[in-house]
Amino acid sequence: MIEASVGEDGTNRADDVRAVQWLLLRIGIDPGAVDGLAGPRLIAAIRTAQVRFDMEADGRIDPGGRTIARLTGARATWDGDSRNWPQERKLASLHPRFRGHIVRVIDTLRRDGLRPTIVYGWRSVAVQRRLLREGVTQVGFGFHNAQTPDGLPAAWAADLVDDRWYWTEPECHVFFRALGAAGKAEGLIWGGDWTFRDWAHLQGRRNAELASVRRESGLT
Ligand SMILES: [Zn+2]
Question: What is the CATH number of domain 82-216?
């Protein structure tokens, strides 16, 4: 997970720092940024995690140590409606192999003068069932619900809209066309191509893989 120590007096390789920043975000602790830099905010966030884990709060994470083991294995409190989470936390809730694609899609759209915002990254199966009852979605388990076997969010889908238009104004079609193009350039699947148009939806796995994603999620 990390190759060298991170935090107070750590080696602080940028890749390791970034990995720790994402891990902290996943359990709802704000590391300040995900920028690969080990500043005071990151060290304070590591201490917060260590206090929560009932460990000595030395602000430092060593490879193979107890803090990294707890961070990677943490069963987080990811309940409630994730729609209201900050953008960074929504990004943190995506599967690591899907997240980079979404980060690049967002960069591309911003460069084109659009204002992408994630409405849903991951959401819990409980929220999914409510949306199913309300007719907002057609499925009881989807790529938004993917998680690690120990219950951490690892979504393979994200819904993005322009924060000026959401789904309401006709101008939003400019945004959704750009979203589809940018997503497909990243090898993603765009819901706007489906018969049942799901304009805001990008996913990183094929529909045929849903059953295996469900198994990977530890759900039967
Ligand atoms: Zn979606």
Answer: 3.30.1380.10
* Distance from Cα 85 to the centre of ligand 1, integer Å: 16
CA 132 to chain CA centroid, Å, is: 22
pLDDT digit string, tens, across residues 152-204: 788 999 999 999 999 887 777 899 999 999 999 999 999 999 998 899 999 99
Q: In angstroms, what is the span from residue 4 Cα to ligand 1's centroid?
A: 37
Give 201 Cα–ligand 1 centroid separation in angstroms.
4
Q: How far is the CA of 114 from the centre of ligand 1 (A)?
A: 19
Whether 92 has a pLDDT exceeding 70, the answer reads yes
Report the candidate in 60, 213, 53 with the shortest Cα–Cα distance to residue 125: 213
Q: How confident is the model at residue 77 (pLDDT cuts 50, 70, 90)?
A: low
CATH code reported for the domain at 6-73: 1.10.101
The residues spanned by each domain of the chain are 6-73, 82-216
Q: How many helices (H) and strands (E) does the chain have?
A: 8, 6
